[in-house]
């Protein structure tokens, strides 16, 4: 096992070392875990971690706080649950974000399976490079992290480079070869300063034939509550209480859950549970808040984040981002209010992100709360 201090997307075989132990990431295939897999994962989170599962903005799950001595046992248990690949290199390539409302045999399902079957043909790419398969009636993942996207448009399927305003018309049988070709184009243009597609195409022109199909208008993310064939429940800060999730799965007898990039879980065939561990009110202000684990869990953070985020949430209209440091791991996009931890205090940004010049510096927690009610 090789533990990576930082600067890497953690995986199961290659975790990241944090202040509270190893961070082990699990990438559910097709964004779905059977009830047996989910219950098994909850048990592992309680036994090897802090008792929580982190739901990431790429619809992955993480167990935090794993002891180095326990890592091999955890990997073996994940393999028995069929949640990881035996080949670490293949596992690392499996960064596929899938629109969660697919049905068995539909176009999203078929294209994802086809991509999985040909992952070995992809070129070497940075670990953060990811793919989206978003082929419902309207794309729902346009605001979520992916570098190469297969989307449904008004005129059919399109392959689109992230950041481009148009894509390349494809058919089902040409989709994966075209994706591999675009990945090879990207790999040839990656530099130390440009390691994501949007950064590359900001300075390099895409082939003209890849920009002929206008992007389709994106659909809003689904709302908390009953949905077709199940229920969507919210997860504050993406931190899933493993005991509570296991309780809901057993009580409802759901056959599977699906993970989403919106800090929500979909209960297949389920209903909205009356459980305080989950957000069941679509107007709950916590669902407009992004906050990383912060101190003492992350070695880069100098401030606690989530207790403050809970206090601030009712007073912020729009998005709130509380970041333990300037990296902004919990949210890469601008927010209405962003607080950036620095030397034990917070810098305040309005209508920007962690890379925006703050309007106020070195605020304490109470100062930040007062600022929410001050002049805008």
Would you give the CATH topology of the largest domain?
Answer: Sulfite Reductase Hemoprotein, domain 2
CATH evolutionary superfamily of the largest domain:
Sulfite Reductase Hemoprotein,Domain 2
Order of strands in the sheet with most strands: 6-7-8-9-10-11
Number of strands: 21
CATH class of the largest domain: Alpha Beta
| Unreliable residue stretches | 1-7
How much of the polypeptide forms β-strand, as a percent range?
Answer: 25-35%
What is the molecular shape? Answer: globular
Largest sheet: 6 strands, mixed
Instruction: List the helices and strands in order.
Output: EEEHEEHHEHEEEEHHEEEEHEEEHEEEEH
Number of domains: 3
CATH architecture label name of the largest domain: Alpha-Beta Complex
Radius of gyration from the CA trace?
20 Å
Helical/strand content category: alpha+beta
């Amino acid at each position: 096992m090789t533990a990576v201090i930082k600067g890497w997307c953690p995986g199961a075989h290659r975790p990241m070392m944090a202040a509270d132990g190893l961070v082990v990431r699990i990438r559910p295939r097709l964004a779905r875990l059977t009830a047996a897999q989910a219950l098994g994962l909850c048990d592992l989170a309680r036994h090897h971690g802090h008792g929580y599962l982190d739901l990431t903005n790429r619809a992955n799950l993480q167990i935090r706080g794993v002891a180095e001595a326990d890592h091999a046992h955890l990997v073996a248990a994940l393999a028995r649950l069929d949640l990881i690949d035996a080949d670490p290199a293949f596992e690392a390539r499996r960064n596929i974000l899938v629109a969660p409302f697919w049905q068995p045999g539909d176009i999203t399902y078929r294209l994802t399976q086809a991509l999985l079957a040909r992952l070995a043909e992809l070129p070497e790419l940075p670990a953060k490079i990811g793919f989206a398969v978003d082929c419902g009636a309207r794309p729902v993942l346009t605001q979520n992290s992916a570098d190469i996207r297969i989307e449904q448009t008004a005129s059919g399927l399109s392959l689109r480079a992230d950041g481009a305003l148009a894509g390349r018309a494809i058919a089902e049988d040409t989709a994966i070869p075209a994706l591999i070709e675009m990945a090879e184009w990207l790999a040839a243009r990656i530099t130390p300063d440009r390691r994501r597609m949007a950064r590359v195409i900001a300075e390099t022109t895409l082939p003209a034939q890849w920009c002929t199909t206008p992007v389709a208008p994106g659909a809003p993310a689904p709302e908390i509550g009953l949905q077709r064939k199940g229920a969507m429940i919210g997860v504050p800060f993406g931190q899933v209480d493993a005991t509570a999730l296991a309780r809901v799965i057993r009580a409802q007898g759901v056959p599977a859950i699906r993970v989403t990039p919106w800090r929500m879980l979909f209960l297949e065939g389920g209903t909205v549970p009356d459980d305080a561990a989950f957000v069941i009110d679509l107007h709950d202000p916590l669902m407009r808040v992004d906050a990383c684990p912060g101190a003492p869990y992350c070695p880069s953070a100098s401030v606690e984040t989530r207790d403050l985020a809970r206090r601030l949430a009712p007073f912020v209209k729009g998005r709130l981002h509380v970041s333990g440091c300037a990296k902004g791991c919990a949210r890469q996009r601008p927010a209405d209010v962003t607080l950036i931890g620095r030397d034990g205090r917070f810098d305040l940004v309005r209508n920007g992100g962690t890379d925006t010049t703050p309007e106020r510096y070195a605020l304490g927690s109470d100062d930040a709360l007062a600022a929410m009610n001050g002049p805008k």
